Amino acid sequence: xxxxxxxxxxxxxxxxxxxxxxxxxxxxxxxxxxxxxxxxxxxxxxxxxxxxxxxxxxxxxxxxxxxxxxxxxxxxxxxxxxxxxxxxxxxxxxxxxxxxxxxxxxxxxxxxxxxxxxxxxxxxxxxxxxxxxxxxxxxxxxxxxxxxxxxxxxxxxxxxxxxxxxxxxxxxxxxxxxxxxxxxxxxxxxxxxxxxxxxxxxxxxxxxxxxxxxxxxxxxxxxxxxxxxxxxxxxxxxxxxxxxxxxxxxxxxxxxxxxxxxxxxxxxxxxxxxxxxxxxxxxxxxxxxxxxxxxxxxxxxxxxxxxxxxxxxxxxxxxxxxxxxxxxxxxxxxxxxxxxxxxxxxxxxxxxxxxxxxxxxxxxxxxxxxxxxxxxxxxxxxxxxxxxxxxxxxxxxxxxxxxxxxxxxxxxxxxxxxxxxxxxxxxxxxxxxxxxxxxxxxxxxxxxxxxxxxxxxxxxxxxxxxxxxxxxxxxxxxxxxxxxxxxxxxxxxxxxxxxxxxxxxxx
Length: 507
Description:
Shape: globular
Number of strands: 14
Largest sheet: 5 strands, mixed
Helix content: 40-55%
Radius of gyration: 30 Å
Distance between the termini: 37 Å
Strand content: 15-25%
Oligomer: single chain
């Protein structure tokens, strides 16, 4: 079961009541927040709000809404403090690195200027000084945030919820929707009954999601506490929200909907691997033997785009991937990536790297893909991203004439199918092979050897051999039987080895 929200334009007959009720709620939001932060019981909090003309259900709806916003504000404050503390740790690591470099440099005798600096030592001292100032400023921010009171954003004036509960008629006692007559009625506060009557009613039909709302109202449920069966029209709770946007009033309802059953075949019969890059999406369909059947690319241009434009372009590309998955009747496989830690180090990595991370909308891509795939019954699988690009470059790019992103997509699909990732013979030199360990230990060495290699040089066997042979100069070969790491029988499983070997991502 998932929750969906459907929106329609508010009938004009309800607009006067919506304007007046939203102003009334605005007047008592601060009072409700003070009551929530107090130590009195929930019953007394509700009774205090009833003194201002709300009935019991309306007061409860306001308290639930304000309580949720206070909880959200506290979570955002904690996340903000955690982000700043991580930035401080990153800056201190950078200071330590610069101090080590400075200690190894001899005192300069020449007076040749390097940019605006007299020497390399002068440049490092300048950077360390200003990085320390940055750390002190961030410490001050954290101290102020911890002492400052929580600030809650209530939103616009014309915006209020009507929260429902399980067991109430039509899922909400103060805002009831009759799906047979397609009509909505809202309970009016007692002090306004002479003006509006006991209820304000209007005809309402949603342009999208009407069937989901009707199904929720007809669905039965079981009370979690008493385990009693709740009859239809009382089984599911419906939460309504009225808001003003772009010179119009709208009404939205949130309901639980049944998920579409999975239509795609099990992953062992084939799947589509997707590799997302800042400028292109590469995909590859792999059959049950692990061989590529079809491949392709979708270009992305997210640079200097607004959030709406980014979402529209990602939605268009994802729609094409969903159509491919429906055509082949298979699942979609993506990498399980997280850039939270890297984004906290953007200030130390440089402008170009920070700009690339900022426009790399992986989290939004993942959200849209999950939503569209869930609606179509397509399974989305996430796999470990370790060495996917490296394996694609060295093993499949030259073999099948692929681009680097489509080759990585093939590796992603094969990893979901639990297929082998053994090192190919043309790069399996003794200098980089590790005996009695998981295959990722060898890929770790290959990644370190080929890190400076350009993409087109992977087609040159001499360049590959030269870079791989140089690895033996710095690293001693590992003898058979000296490893204390558990041997993994199946290459697709996560190895029980050092995090340096198993977790680090090779790109």
